[in-house]
Amino acid sequence: MELLLAGVIVTAVIFAGSNGFHDAALTIGNAVVGRSINAGWALGLAVVFNFIGALLGEGIASVVANQIVHFEGDPEVILTSLIIAFVAATAWSLFTYYLALPVSSTHCLIGGLLGAGLALGFSVNSSEAINSVILPLVISPILGFVISWGLTALLSKAFASSPPKPLFRGARMVDSVLTSSLSLVHGIQDAQKIAALVMVGMLAVDTNPHTELAVVEISWPVRLIIAAALAIGTGLSGWRVVRTLSVRMAGLDPLKSATADATSTLLMYTAALIMRVPVSLTFILGSAILGTQYAGRRGRPRARFIVPIIGGWLLTIPAAAALAICIGLVVRLLVG
């Protein structure tokens, strides 16, 4: 039992690191591309604020750990399902990073969790999954596009007669501040659910079998471990996905870059602190970038990059779930 719990902790730490590696550079990508801040300084800020954000809040943790999959029964099966979920989520996240394809680590984990639950016989709350995962998955990028489009159109009219140099200088100053804010909310969003599932594993060891597990709070040692893993992954973060979103997909000037980051910040904090639902920074930011391209001075959206991004957006949950189901079925055959 202790060995399985150690496996949960190790796979959770690896997934948290891959999360930071895959996603965290997105919080600073627009600002770096727009020359609002030096890449080295930006990455240092992302490490610090992802770590701080990972220590804050528990609302999303409750949704992920208590309301989507009902964990009860044999503790060994619960621990095995958590390991499978983390392995499937990490595998899909790293595979898509290799393809330079932006996907949501949140949806990787939720897909892995749903697949592991189905493979090993846990009940899945389909209505909660739709309300807390599928609807935010669909609605948040649409809101990101609409808000960013409207804000870009408004700012373009307001500053139509302003000289570009001072306007872009001010936009760069704003964007340099937004990078820290985005990194903070990325930590809040992404660390909570990982830490909550580690707590499920710890409760499975300490609770009587056949008792449904409910995470009430996350212990500080677990918070610190996951926060450190997320921060380390952020520090090692690659730029492949950033190039896809901030360079190849669209043409951004400093004003549009700041507008996309401001829109993403607004929606991410609303989801994390008010709605308490897991959403994807990747797709909110991507849709916000696209919104800037269709308002004011027309940008340069490139369909050959947009189509694979939308495909990854739609496929991540089912792909991670299918991978978890395959791993779960292999485990069941081996265990007998």
How far is it from the N-terminal to the C-terminal residue, by CA? 18 Å
> Strand pairing plus helix content: what structural class?
mainly alpha
The number of strands is 2
Report low-confidence residues grouped into runs of 5 or more. none
Count of helical stretches? 13
The string of secondary-structure elements, in order, is HHHHEHHEHHHHHHH
Strand content: under 5%
**Cα gyration radius (Å):** 20 Å
Q: How would a crystallographer describe the biggest sheet?
A: 2 strands, antiparallel
Helix percentage range: over 70%
Keywords: Membrane, Transmembrane, Transmembrane helix, Transport
Transmembrane segments: 40-65, 77-98, 104-122, 134-155, 220-239, 266-290, 310-335
Membrane topology: Multi-pass membrane protein
Subcellular location: Membrane
Please describe the topology of this protein.
Layout: H1 2-23, H2 26-33, H3 39-54, H4 59-68, E1 69-70, H5 75-98, H6 105-120, E2 123-124, H7 126-158, H8 164-206, H9 220-235, H10 240-248, H11 254-275, H12 281-293, H13 303-335
Antiparallel strand pairs: 1-2
Helix pairs in contact: 1-5, 1-8, 1-9, 2-3, 2-8, 2-10, 3-8, 3-9, 4-8, 5-6, 5-8, 5-13, 6-13, 7-11, 7-12, 8-9, 8-11, 11-12
